[in-house]
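Box 4.2: Ligand-aware structure prediction
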Amino acid sequence: MQKLTVELGSRSYPILIGDGLLEKIGAHVAPLLRRPRTMIVTDEHVADLYLARVGTSLAQANISFSSLALPAGEGTKSWEGLSRLTEWLIDQGIERSDHVIALGGGVIGDLVGFACSIVKRGCAFVQVPTTLLAQVDSSVGGKTAINVPAGKNLIGAFHQPALVVIDPATLASLPPRELRAGYAEVVKYGLIDDADFFAWCEANGAALLAGDTGARHRAIAHSVAAKARIVAADERETQDVRALLNLGHSFGHALEAETGYSDRLLHGEAVAAGMALAHQFSAAQGLCPAADAARVRDHLASVGLPHSLASAGVGTGGTALAAHMAHDKKVRGGKLPLILTRGIGQSFVTEEYGLDAVAAFLDGAG
Ligand SMILES: NC(=O)c1ccc[n+]([C@@H]2O[C@H](COP(=O)([O-])OP(=O)(O)OC[C@H]3O[C@@H](n4cnc5c(N)ncnc54)[C@H](O)[C@@H]3O)[C@@H](O)[C@H]2O)c1
Ligand SMILES: [Zn+2]
């Protein structure tokens, strides 16, 4: 088992990574609890696969628990999902010092984190991510939210978990498309500031996706360590440090909005195309070598991820896409900060380029 720490003073917390950790979760949660009781929140897919395993381990540690399995899918990250969950937690007699276990992907992690930030004015929770995206990104860092009709993640809070338990063995049951989408966020850490890690992805990404457990461990540990470092440096994204995690996301969100946040394009797939576009835009502005943009596009294409507007299935004009970007919640004083790059591993934040320049670029991007 590997252990990392997110350094946030008195709110610091450990991240445990190891195959089979679900079977041992009781022993890791027990020391956190004031009374031997917890509540597990999961989705219906993950409940079928992993709830019994977690329950057995809690029982072995003499921890009693109740569980709630919500419908799987993004729709659960909603006002309805939130009210159902918060009322259930109150019905269960939750106390402030209790720790709720969020067992599932980013949908469950974001929803449970947000619920725990407001129930009884804040109670603790443990992230047990079961998708690659959640294991390398959403389970760490304390961003929690639900979606509303006006947009994704618009209602939420910063609320850090007390513990993150990552069992990479759970990836064995993840559909290949979900695995690939999560892998886009792994590649992102290389592109942000770690050219060596991007080269590692080029050499090992295909094996990781095909099931190489060593490569999965290495990628998860490396990604989570990078995320932990960034969160410790800029927890609330008040400087440009945490903003770098949005590499590919401004372009990506425009593609997600255009495809209706649907199964047509998963978040990670949109981010993959978005990262390729951010590199291509940077090259077009003379900021980044065209060869680096080509390397990014080629690697994403080689593992079957979208790497262009066409491969993302979006044929919309640049003006309409740029209009989606204008609604981004990162807009400051009417300007959208873009994450651009001087080359692989050299990304930076800039407000230098207006949406008209982005629209013109997208019109010619293909
Ligand atoms: N808080 C953050 O910092 C942050 C960062 C990135 C993304 N997110 C959010 O994360 C969400 C997406 O998360 P996601 O991609 O994990 O999606 P998800 O939670 O919807 O999971 C994807 C699908 O995989 C299933 N699943 C989960 N684990 C499984 C397993 N081990 N085996 C088989 N099936 C499994 C789920 O039931 C679901 O059907 C979005 O709402 C996004 O906004 C949050
Ligand atoms: Zn993302």
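In the box above, the bound molecule is zinc ion. The chain has a mean pLDDT of 96.
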